[in-house]
Automatic annotation (TrEMBL):
Compartment(s) where it occurs, according to its Swiss-Prot or TrEMBL record: Cell membrane
Entry keywords, A to Z: Membrane, Transmembrane, Transmembrane helix
Biased composition (Low complexity): 388-412
Protein name per its UniProtKB record: ABC transporter transmembrane domain-containing protein
Domain of life the protein comes from: Bacteria
């Protein structure tokens, strides 16, 4: 932007942002666009993904053997069975435990391998799109938002892939197969356990609509903080020259305070959400034991069946707890994925890397890298004491018409419809400027730093 006249000492440059102001940001991808990007990335690993799901399902099935065997063991003891039968059931429990541990380890390694490959491909897409962003778009959004997306957001997703993806896949399969095992054992006991579902539903209905906006705002606040830091540090000499330290420090402090406040709110929100898990576990397990007591008295089921049902439901505590208590991290990773895919959309969207207008028509002569445009007005360009390297020799002023290098030009300047390019990328369009006699013009950026040239 431009500033005419001489700035007063101690005042910030024209480009200094006011504390609390917000730049335009790169777009956010929708949930459907994120899923489409994930499907495309996972599609290259179809065979490995199918084998991994089979291994994880086998590990979950192995985990169902122990509650079933313990239920049979209870019936064997209550019925006065032979010691050999008891030993055989104990062997089943031990063997299933060893097999389940081995399958879980192998499937977890396979899930992590797929996740890292998918993340690597998405990271390459994001970095490639970032390099293709038009400079004009980057000037509008600021470098901080882009740096946060290719740095902080990629780091958040990488951390989740490394530490949570495999446990989440195993937990989801364990929950699904355990509920199926409950129904296979006894539908009435399974229905008793399902009384916990309303508690989960009410908790999710309260949590989900409030969680996504909070995590999205948290990631955006981190981007604003990065932008404030980058803009100030990149133009630090100019900030000192204008005496604008307080204004820039206030902007950094305001963005940091906002990021800290939102993060603290997210933490308290996730902590409060966890108590609903304990309530749901109490309701479900209590319902199974109460229903089992009545069914045993009516000789509808055995004590061992009720024991197995209670153990099946108890087995849900860990996977459901993992899903719920790490849901905030998954939500944060989802918000980061939206921002990452948003960079890809911005880099490949309409107009990315191309200008618009008559200057961009096929066959038009591209201006020099220093800039392009046209000035109009009686005095436009008059009185320049220097040759213009971007102009053909025929259009340059004759040596006799040039002023000495130390001469002060006279007259006004009127500029209309100026544009500027870096290579094929237009960064300025339709800039108009009026400079009265005696005025000075400074071109400044977002941090107050001066521009080395004007178009």
């Amino acid at each position: 932007m431009t500033e005419t006249g001489t700035p007063e000492p101690g005042t910030p440059g024209a480009g200094t942002p006011e504390p609390g102001t917000r730049r335009a940001r790169l777009p956010l991808a929708t949930g459907r666009q994120v899923l489409r990007a994930l499907r495309r990335a996972v599609g290259a690993q179809r065979l490995l993904a199918a084998a991994t799901l089979l291994l994880a399902a086998a590990a979950a099935l192995a985990g169902l053997v122990a509650p079933w065997a313990i239920g049979l063991l209870v019936d064997e003891v209550v019925g006065g069975g032979e010691p050999g039968g008891v030993v055989a059931l104990i062997a089943w429990v031990a063997g299933a435990g060893v097999l389940g541990a081995a399958l879980t380890a192998v499937s977890a390694a396979a899930v992590a391998r797929i996740g890292q490959r998918v993340l690597a491909r998405m990271r390459e897409d994001v970095l490639g799109a970032a390099l293709r962003l038009p400079p004009g778009r980057l000037e509008e959004t600021g470098r901080g938002d882009l740096l946060a997306r290719v740095g902080d957001d990629v780091g958040v997703v990488s951390q989740v892939v490394a530490s949570l993806l495999a446990p989440w896949v195993g937990a989801a399969l364990a929950v699904t197969l355990t509920v199926a095992g409950l129904f296979a054992l006894n539908p009435l006991l399974a229905l008793a356990g399902l009384t916990a579902i309303p508690v989960y539903v009410l908790a999710l209905r309260w949590y989900l609509p409030r969680a996504a906006p909070r995590y999205g705002a948290e990631r955006a606040a981190f981007g604003d903080r990065s932008e404030a830091l980058v803009a100030s540090l990149s133009g630090l000499p100019t900030v000192h020259a204008y005496g604008a330290e307080r204004e820039h420090a206030a902007e950094i402090a305001a963005s940091s305070h906002r990021a800290r406040t939102i993060s603290r709110d997210v933490l308290w929100f996730a902590t409060g959400w966890g108590k609903w898990m304990n309530i749901a576990e109490l309701v479900g397990l209590g319902a199974i034991i109460a229903a089992g007591f009545g069914l045993v008295r009516a000789d509808a089921v055995t004590v061992g069946a009720v024991t197995a049902a209670a153990l099946y439901f108890h087995r849900l505590f860990n996977p459901l707890g993992l899903i719920v208590f790490s849901f905030d991290e998954m939500q944060s990773a989802g918000a980061s994925l939206q921002r990452m895919v948003g960079v890809v959309i911005a880099g490949a969207g309409p107009g990315a890397g191309a200008g618009s207008g008559a200057d961009d028509a096929p066959g038009a002569r591209p201006p020099s890298p220093a800039g392009s445009g046209a000035g109009s007005g009686a005095d436009a360009g008059a009185g320049t004491g220097h040759s213009l390297p971007g102009l053909p020799a025929a259009d340059r002023p004759a040596a006799a018409d040039r002023l000495p290098a130390d001469a002060r030009p006279a007259g006004a300047v009127s500029v209309r419809g100026v544009g500027h390019r870096y290579g094929e990328h237009r960064v300025l369009r339709e800039v108009s400027l009026e400079i009265a006699p005696g005025e000075q013009v400074a071109l400044v950026g977002a941090s107050g730093a001066g521009s080395p040239r004007s178009p």
